[in-house]
Amino acid sequence: MSEHITTANKIYFKPLEPEKEKIIIEDIAHALSLMTRANGHFPEFYSVGQHCIGCYKEAVARGLSERIALICLLHDASEAYIADITRPVKKELKEYLVIEKRLQDAIYERFLGKLPTDEEMEKVSQIDDAMLYHEFYHYMGERVMDRASELLTEPDFYERPFKEVEKEYLDIYEKISKRA
Q1: H or E element in which residue 103 lies
Q2: Average pLDDT over every residue of 137-145
Q3: How many other C-beta atoms are found inside a 10 Å radius of the C-beta of residue 3?
């Protein structure tokens, strides 16, 4: 049985033993633009890539640092290599959480140079939760948390061609990385 996956760019990648030099932004942007939020239960296709772009834009609108905005863009990047599992199930899968953290840490080290601080991750989590709330309210009419977290942006809650999302994700990354 193979211990690697083959990425969109034909890279043999071992998700259980991530090698930072094999993690490329093109694979992440491609995969996330094709992965659906809410395990496919929204009434139309809304990708993880769109979610990450929305989180990035919200960080910018809140006046947070470019580093935090980049963390927002990358915060679900591990899903490009190991997919995602819904929150109620994920919290029960301790080994999955270890694998996900190891991979996400390798992604952060690759693109940020070092791991985000707890303070940075708290800001990212606030934005991620706010987006989650508004995504579920928009698509399902459901309030998934007791209180709505306000957004300063108006996310693009509509179906977009995956190539368009992939390109926007890459354009954002390129713009940020040139200034870093």
Answers
A1: helix 94-112
A2: 93
A3: 9
User: Under CATH, what is the fold of the domain 5-179?
Assistant: Hypothetical protein af1432 (1.10.3210)
Whether the per-residue pLDDT at 1 is higher than 90: the answer is: no
24 in Cβ contact with 9 (< 8 Å)? yes
**Burial label, 24 (beta-carbon count in 10 A; 0-12, 13-18, 19+):** middle
Q: Which one has a higher pLDDT value, 120 or 85?
A: 120
Domain ranges of the chain: 5-179
Whether pLDDT at 3 is above 60: yes
Q: Which of 135, 42, 136, 34 is nearest to 79 (CA)?
A: 34
Paired tokens of 108: 């952060």
Q: For residue 102, how many other CB atoms are within 10 A of its CB?
A: 14
The residue to which tokens 């309210």 are assigned: 137
